[in-house]
Design brief:
This protein is an alpha/beta fold and 453 residues long. The chain has 2 domains: 4-184, Cobalamin-binding domain (Rossmann fold, 3-Layer(aba) Sandwich), CATH 3.40.50.280; 212-449, Alpha-Beta Barrel (TIM Barrel), CATH 3.20.20. It contains 16 helices and 16 strands. Helix 10 (305-314) links the parallel strand 13 (291-293) and strand 14 (316-324). It is globular. It starts with a strand and ends with a helix. The model has no long low-confidence stretch (mean pLDDT 95). It binds iron/sulfur cluster (SF4). Iron/sulfur cluster is lined by residues 221, 223-225, 228, 230, 266-267, 322, 335, 337.
């Protein structure tokens, strides 16, 4: 019989969480690839909003779903961890019930290994809990942990997660590291190589219902923003063959009638002419009435009238721009990715192409070390006045980024000891007086969203 593997996407424990095209894409790639290598894959997605086992559970309210496949998760309020007791907000576990998770684990007999993924560093409580439960039910089975938290906080993960091993690679090639780690335990699939040198598609078909598919046409980013871990996690900027990406989109459309696609690229528009343009021109020709979304921001300086035109005609409906701040002196210090006039030009081109205010949003970083509240406020005004919807992106300090040392200096929290303090909801690099002005900032954002500014 084929060796069985349990793949787990853990719960989120946080003050807030929302399904903004959030899927464990890395884990789904690994699932799709290991299936081709001849493993039996059992996927447990703790964030599955369509799990049939939740239908009869009345203890958790039904999550409200919204436009384009986004929406709320299942949510159950839980006690706060001791170190967050002073935060006056409810804390919740997002995802399926614990009983259902245990039931799922028990259904799988004699797995050879358990693979767990991780995302935000401050979500490790969910990781730790699924590993602990998996160990109770399958005590002799090795547990491998991968993903973002595991790579950014490797020592912490080795000490506290309960996993046997941390797999030290992310991105499209992480499956090689997983296969190598499995071999150390004598676990092999039915075949040692794949027929094609193309990576199999991520296993969205193993989910209960596909609201949308997440696409990765490239990994890494040529920029080096001081607050971002992209370079640490994927040191090279690599692109896939655009024809293969197009085939993948058509596969999901024709086999599963998927209409919404979210791009997970960090640098989707870089090298546009020979990459994304090839895909979009064909999509315009096919006119499939698809909708595309860019929850990871687009680079402003890559947007030209032609880029905007193709984005619009091919069906992009959610455009997010990585502005971060309108203060160009601050850009010189933190990222060098925006110069004076580039935001205005990009917005002009997008409007000319046909995008509305509702469809164009700009991310504004809030809570950076040494950033003033007034500079955030000015950026909101700047964005709103140009007919773009402002979106606040609260800064989370991330280990291994160039800004990490500065974050440590500016925070009252023990960031280096406790990843829960990286939580962006805490605004851990702002002081009490700055945090006290957040409601005023949020009110201003809301006014622009509601057209009341
Ligand atoms: S441009 Fe975006 S993805 Fe690239 S380094 Fe900067 S923040 Fe990260």
């Amino acid at each position: 019989m084929k060796p069985g593997l349990i793949l787990i996407n853990p719960w989120i424990y946080d003050f807030a969480a929302f399904d903004l095209w959030s899927k464990p894409l890395g884990l789904l790639y690994i699932a799709g690839t290991l299936r081709e290598f001849g493993f039996r894959i059992h996927l447990i997605d703790c964030l599955d909003v369509h799990h049939p086992g939740m239908e009869s559970d009345r203890s958790i309210p039904l999550p409200r779903r919204q436009l384009f496949g986004t929406g709320k998760f299942w949510r159950k309020e839980v006690p706060k961890p001791h170190c967050l007791k002073q935060i006056p907000r409810p804390f919740s576990r997002y995802g399926i019930s614990k009983e259902l998770f245990v039931h799922e684990l028990k259904r799988i007999k004699n797995p050879s290994a358990i693979l767990v993924t991780s995302l935000m560093t401050y979500w490790y409580l969910g990781v730790k809990e699924v590993i602990s439960l998996a160990r109770e039910i399958h005590p002799e089975v090795p547990v491998l942990l991968g993903g973002v938290y595991a790579n950014l906080c490797r020592e912490h993960a080795l000490e506290f997660s309960g996993a046997d091993q941390v797999v030290g690679e992310t991105g499209l090639t992480a499956t090689h590291s997983v296969l190598a780690a499995l071999r150390q335990y004598g676990i092999e699939g039915e075949t040692e190589s794949l027929e094609s040198d193309r990576l199999p598609y991520p296993a969205f078909d193993m989910l209960h219902g596909i609201d949308y598919v997440c696409l990765l046409t490239s990994t890494g980013c040529p920029y080096r923003c001081r607050y971002c871990a992209s370079h640490f996690l994927n040191s090279n900027f690599l692109t896939r063959d655009p024809h293969h990406v197009l085939e993948e989109i058509l596969y999901w459309v024709n086999r599963f009638e998927v209409r919404d696609f979210a791009f997970y690229d960090d640098a989707l528009l870089v090298g546009f002419d020979n990459h994304l343009a090839v895909i979009l021109e064909e999509l315009v020709r096919l006119d499939l009435k698809l909708r595309f979304h860019t929850p990871n921001a687009l680079h402003l300086r890559e947007i030209t009238p032609e880029v905007a035109r193709l984005l619009y005609l091919s069906g992009f409906r959610t455009i997010r721009l990585g502005l971060e701040t309108s203060d160009m002196n601050q850009h010189d210090e933190i990222d060098h990715k925006v110069s004076a006039g580039e935001f205005e030009n990009a917005v002009h081109d997008l409007h000319e192409a046909g995008f509305t205010k509702r469809e164009i949003g700009a991310y504004i970083l809030m809570g950076l070390p040494a950033q003033s509240v007034d500079s955030v406020r000015k950026t909101i005004e700047f964005v709103g006045r140009l007919g773009v919807t402002p979106y606040l992106a609260e800064y989370s300090p991330i280990p291994h980024t160039p800004m990490w040392e500065m974050a440590l200096e500016h925070s009252d929290y023990e960031l280096a000891l406790e990843p829960l303090f990286h939580n962006n909801s805490l605004l851990p690099c702002w002081d009490k007086a700055q945090r006290a002005r957040v409601p005023e900032i949020k009110k201003r954002v809301q006014a622009f969203r509601m057209n009341r500014a």
